[in-house]
Specification:
By secondary structure, this protein is of the alpha/beta class. The chain is 34% helix and 19% strand. The chain has helices at residues 23-33, 80-97, 117-127, 143-155, 178-190, 217-230, 234-241, 265-270, 284-292; strands spanning 10-12, 42-48, 68-73, 102-110, 131-135, 161-166, 195-198, 207-209, 212-214, 249-250, 256-258, 261-263, 277-280. The strands form 3 sheets. It has an 8-stranded parallel barrel with strand order 1-2-3-4-5-6-7-13, surrounded by 5 helices. 45% of the residues are buried.
Length: 302
């Protein structure tokens, strides 16, 4: 059954580690998932700007009625505004030349430094009609001021800006602490920032996997949703993000619950918790986990 919190939640990142699929199997896997019963959870296909041309042979898979939705990662080497501007040119040309229907909807880019108002204005102007998610290291000391600057830019009318957090990787130090993730989510709520997450969120609930303690995507998005609805404190956010008991969570009746805190389906629909997403190199893994745990036992809520 559909659930409002999970709608379009998972952007497909099959080109990236640890899957690292070649373009053809990645595109065909994404296309096959569009026919799955859980396709309502599937979001965009994530592709580097430098590899967009490799998608052209597969245009016939995506008719106008079911376009290829894309999130593009701009190439590096310049200021963020120039990187986004170049990605826009590449994306516009790709859309015109694609032998099917394609829509580049968002950009995602890592940023090394805090951006001032001018740089954020340039980034917003370059992105045009598309959303641009900016990623900083979640452990950096000035992260709050980085996010606050994005909030100020959005208040000034530059609404096509969001932020992004990396929740894992192939090395232990790529996994941010529970406190770092909780702070990021809490600040996104405080500053009303749309966000994306990526890496390390293959499974619903925080758990040990080999040498890594991996964050759970339910931990992340339930924590954010409850913070938006209930304005919970940071300590509680850390407890939700760090929760390892699957039974502490519920998606019953279209709402969300963590222990004794809950938000109804109506509350979730009425607040700006929607539109957030995370990138995963597998769509099957998170969906299988949700199905095996019978998370979809609730009535249809979308």
């Amino acid at each position: 059954m559909r659930h409002v919190l999970l709608n379009n939640l998972i952007d497909y990142a099959g080109l990236f580690p640890p899957a690292r699929l070649d373009m053809e199997p990645a595109v065909r896997e994404y296309h096959a998932h569009l026919a799955d019963p859980e396709a309502w959870m599937l979001g965009r296909f994530i592709c580097p700007e430098t590899r967009l041309a490799e998608l052209k042979p597969f245009g016939g898979l995506f008719p106008d009625s079911s376009p290829l939705r894309l999130s593009v990662l701009p190439a590096g080497g310049a200021s963020i505004g120039k990187r986004i501007a170049h990605a826009v040119q590449t994306s516009d040309g790709f859309e015109r030349g694609f032998s099917g229907s394609a829509s580049v909807e968002v950009f995602e880019a890592r940023v090394a430094d805090r951006l001032d108002a001018g740089a954020l204005a340039d980034t917003h102007q370059a992105a045009g009609r598309r959303m641009a998610y900016l990623e900083w290291d979640p452990g950096r000391a000035d992260l709050r001021s980085c996010l606050e600057a994005v909030m100020t830019a959005r208040v000034s009318g530059r609404t096509k800006l969001g932020v992004k957090i990396r929740c894992g990787g192939t090395e232990a130090d790529a996994f941010p602490s529970v406190a770092s993730v909780a702070r990021f989510l809490h600040w996104c709520r405080e500053f009303s920032l749309p966000f994306k997450a990526t890496a390390g969120l293959h499974h619903p609930v925080r758990h040990q996997r080999g040498p890594f303690i991996m964050h759970g995507f339910l931990n992340v998005f339930v924590a954010y949703a409850l913070d938006v609805v209930l304005n919970v404190d940071l300590e509680t956010m850390e407890h939700i993000v760090g929760e390892t008991d699957p039974n502490a969570f519920s998606l019953a009746e279209g709402g969300v619950r963590w222990r004794d805190l809950e938000a109804s389906a109506q509350q979730l629909r009425s607040v700006s918790v929607l539109g957030n997403a995370y990138g995963s190199c597998s769509f099957k893994e998170p969906v299988d986990d949700l199905n095996e745990a019978a998370w979809f036992g609730a009535p249809d809520s979308v």
